Structures are given as structure tokens and as C-alpha cells.
Amino acid sequence: MDYKISGDNLQLVTIQLPPDEMVYAEAGSMVYMSANMNMEAKMRGGILKSLGRKISGETMFLTEFRSQGGEGMVSFGGNCPGTIQVVELSGGQEFLAQRDAFLVAEDSVEVQIAFQRRLGAGFFGGEGFILQKYSGNGKVFVHACGDFVEFNLEEGQVLKVDTGSVVGWDATVNYDIERVKGIKTMFFGGEGIFLTTLRGPGRVLLQSLDLGRLAHALQPFMPYQRSGQSGSGMGELIGGLTR
């Protein structure tokens, strides 16, 4: 399987498929495909695994793509401004990711639900209790808001990260949270009360901007409705100047 990731902050991954290969993707993520590409929605793994995917933030049905009569092409994109990263799995590796990260994977990769092992990490770590777990041998493409930063942690190496900025990590990485030191820093430092700690060995994928922060930044500019009338912050300002 050949692929190409194109674009800057609204990326697409375009996959070239020979007739004997298949990929499956999150429903609604296909952007364009060649005429000889056949797609079919399926409950991969049966009803229980499909329900697990629904709980983890994905759809119950995944869409399978196969080419017919020669090599085919299909392209996928995420559901928010961001970038795409390929995660290579081999030798029975497992990779854990935030609940809405999955985009598309090879048929040899399995996507299933996973849970946080530590209560504190589930409540305060920014990823919630429910995660996605990727296993098998092959490529899986993940999507997240902002740009990706990848680290390969050595044995015992610790990385401290803002909660919500972690996209995924190898199952060999220990994931936990710790409280920010100092009352002033905790309440006025702007970084929140908790930090995520990741201890190697293994890969770690971070995002430069999480969707929650993006939504918070855009909130002052969003239309609003009051007393049966709709408007925006800019409209209110212009109205005030013209009265």
C-alpha cells in the first residue's frame, strides 16, 4: 500500500490500493476516490465491538474500501482543522489513542476500545476514561487538531505535557497525571491544576492545539441568540456605534 499525506493544516491522506488489498475508515471521512473503488459499510468484529467503537467516539459502522479491475485510489480527511500521522504497528505492538483519533487503517490492524487504568488519569488527564487501542501489523492513520509532535522516550525518560495535548502513546508507556506545584502557579499560571506525565519506553504523539482550546478561542466570535434575535459580537459593536 502506497500513501501520500498532503496539505498543511487541513490535510488529506491519499492511498493507492492494488486489487488484493483493503482499508477501512471512519464513516464519512472519505473525500474522493477513483471510479473503480468499491465501498461497503460493515460492523467489523460484530455487534459488541461495534458498540465499543461507538462508546469510544467512533461510529458503529466502518466503511471498507476495495479496488476492482486494477489499482484504485481513495483519499481521507479529518473532521476538524488539523493534521494526519501514520502509526506503524509490527510484532504485536499496541498503541493507545484519544477516543476520536482514528481515521483509516489497513485490514490487518484492529481497532477496539480500551480504558484508563488509573482513576486520576481518567478524571483529570484530558483523555477521559475511554481510549482507542490499535493492534496488529500494519499502518493506521490518526487525525488530530493542530500539528503533530512525536517523541521516542527511552526507558525511564519522563515527559510532562499539558492535559489534552496527548494524542496517543505505545502501550509500553506509563500514562499518569500529577498536580502542578505551587498555589500561585496552579491557579494563575494558565496551565491548569494537573499535568500529564508520560514515562518511557515508547512512542508518544502530541498535538500542538486541542479541539477544546480551539473552540474556546473561537467562542467570542460565534453567533449568539438573545431575546429572539441572533447576532454576533461584531454585530453588537457595530449596532452600538450606529445608534
Describe this structure in words.
About 9% of the residues have low confidence. The strands form five sheets. Strands 5-6-3-10-13-8 form a six-stranded antiparallel β-sheet, with no helix packed on it. A six-stranded antiparallel β-sheet has the order 11-12-9-16-19-14. With 243 residues, it is α+β, with helices and mostly antiparallel strands. It has a single domain, classed as Mitochondrial biogenesis AIM24 (Double-stranded beta-helix). A hairpin with a 5-residue loop joins strand 1 and strand 2. The chain is built from five helices and 21 strands. The termini are far apart. The chain is 16% helix and 48% strand.
Order of helices and strands: EEEEEHEEEEEEHEEEEEEHEEHEEH
Q: Counting H and I runs of at least 4 residues, what is the number of helices?
A: 5
Helix content: 10-25%
How far is the first residue's CA from the last residue's CA?
Answer: 63 Å
**What fold name stands as the CATH topology?**
Double-stranded beta-helix
User: Structural class of the secondary elements?
Assistant: alpha+beta
Q: Major sheet: size, sense and barrel closure?
A: 6 strands, antiparallel
Shape: globular
Low-confidence stretches: 119-128, 184-190, 234-239
Please provide the count of β strands: 21
C-alpha Rg, in Å?
Answer: 21 Å
Our estimate of the beta-strand percent is over 45%
> Overall mean pLDDT score?
80
